[in-house]
Amino acid sequence: MSSSTVITNIATLVTNDPSLGDGSPLGLIQDAAVVIDGDRVAWTGESSKAPATDNRVDAGGRAVLPGFVDSHSHLVFAGDRTQEFNARMSGRSYTAGGIRTTVAATRAASDAELEANLTRYLDEALRQGTTTFETKSGYGLTVEDESRALRLAAKHTDEVTYLGAHIVSPDYADDPAAYVALVTGEMLDACAPHARWIDVFCEKGAFDGDQARAILTAGRAKGLHPRVHANQLSYGPGVQLAVELDAASADHCTHLTDADVDALAGGNTVATLLPGAEFSTRAEWPNARRLLDAGVTVALSTDCNPGSSFTSSVPFCIALAVRDMRMTPDEAVWAATAGGAAALRRTDIGRLGPGARADLTLLDAPSHVHLAYRPGVPLVSGVWRRGERVV
Ligand code: NIG
Ligand code: FE
C-alpha cells in the first residue's frame, strides 16, 4: 500500500492549473499544501484545508513548482569543445561544423564512458530541478553508433529521440543522398525500437526541406513522432514543415518570418526556445514576445550539448529568457514546466493538480519569480520524482 505525504507551509505553489488558485495560467496558490499519494498528486489547496496524511513535510514558507520538463537535450556524447567555445568568445561564429569533433569522440568512447557522462549530466540537471528530460542521438551517425546512443538513453528516460539526421555523416560527405537513404532505411530500422521521436536538423549545411520531409515521413511510418531543429542559424523551411507534419515541437525558432509565426499560431506545434544556445553562440535572441503575443505555445529547454549550449540548468535558461527574451517570470516558469510537457505531448507532468505525476521542485525562495530575480543562485533545495524525494 502506498503511503501519503503532505507538504505544508508552501508560500507560493505553482500548479499550472488555471482552475486552481488565482485563475492565472500558473494557477498560483498562496499558503498552500500538496498531498502526494504514491507517485501521484492526490490533493492541492490551501494549507489550512489539507487532509490528514501519514507523513508531513514543512516547506518552511518556500515555493514549490512542478519539476522542470527539459524537452530538448543532446546528452549522449563524449568529450567537450572548450577550444571551439573559446574561439567563439574571441569572435569566431558558430557553424555547427564542430558536431564532427563530438561525433569522432563519441564513436571512440565505450558504452560505459557514454553512460557515465549521461548520468553525470542527468544528476546535474536533477539537482537543478529537472524531473523529466528528452534526449537524442546524433553524435554517432552510423547504424551501430546511433542505435547504441538510443539504447543507452532509453535506460534513463522514455523521451528518446532519433537524430541520425543531425548532419550528413562525414563518411558520406560526397553522397548526401546515400546518407539520407541510410537514415531512412537501415539506421531507422535499428533505431526505431529504442525511440519515441524522430528529429532532423533542417538548416543550410545540414538537411534541406525536402530531405527533412523525407526523413520525418519515413520515421512516422515506423511509429516515431516528428520534432524539428528549425530556423536556428537562418531563415528556412523547418518551422513550416514542422507544423505541416504536426510535429510536437519546432526547436530554436531564432529566425522567423511572419508566415512562420502564423503557421505556429495556427497549428499544434510548440515553439521550443533554447536561450542557452544563443548565450553560448553569441547569436541574436529568439523573439519570445512575438510568439507569445501571437498565441503560440512556447516551451523553454536547455539544448544541453557540448557545442552550442553546454548547460543542464533550466533555472539559468529561465533567467536568460526573462532578461533577454522579454518573457515575464510567470511565462518563463510556465514554459519550462507546462510548456515542456506540451512539447512532449504529455498531460501527466508539468502541472501539480490532482492526478499529476508527483514531480515537484522546492525552492529556497518564497516565490518562483526568484528563479529569474536571483540568477546563478542554486535555489533548488528539494526535488520529488514520482513521489519520492530525490534531492
Ligand atoms: O541544437 N543545431 C544542431 N544541434 C545542436 C548543436 C550540436 C553541436 O554543436 O554539437 C543544437 O544547437
Ligand atoms: Fe538541439
Q: Low-confidence spans: pLDDT under 50, at least 5 residues? A: none
Let me know the largest β-sheet: 7 strands, mixed
Q: How are helices and strands ordered from N to C? A: EEEEEHHHEEHEHHEHEHEHEHHEHHEHEE
Number of helices: 14
Instruction: Give the N-to-C terminal Cα separation.
Output: 24 Å
Strand percentage lies at 15-25%
- What's the overall geometry? globular
Binding site for 4-imidazolone-5-propanoate: 81, 139, 166, 232, 308
Pfam family, one: Amidohydro_1
Protein name: Imidazolonepropionase
Cofactor: Zn(2+); Fe(3+)
What can you see in these coordinates?
The protein is an alpha/beta fold and 391 residues long. The chain contains 14 helices and 16 strands. It has helices at residues 82-89, 99-108, 111-127, 143-154, 176-184, 186-191, 209-221, 238-244, 258-266, 275-281, 288-293, 314-324, 329-343, 370-373; strands at 4-14, 28-37, 40-46, 55-66, 68-70, 130-133, 135-136, 160-165, 197-202, 225-230, 249-252, 270-273, 298-300, 360-363, 380-385, 388-389. The strands form three sheets. The chain has a seven-stranded mixed sheet with strand order 3-2-1-4-14-15-16, with no helix packed on it. A seven-stranded parallel sheet has the order 7-8-9-10-11-12-13. The chain has a two-stranded parallel sheet with strand order 5-6. Helix 3 (111-127) packs across helix 4 and helix 12 packs across helix 13. It starts with a strand and ends with a strand. Bound molecules: N-(iminomethyl)-L-glutamic acid and fe (iii) ion. Residues 74, 96, 98-99, 102, 201, 229, 232, 277, 303, 305-309 line the site of N-(iminomethyl)-L-glutamic acid. N-(iminomethyl)-L-glutamic acid binds next to helix 2.
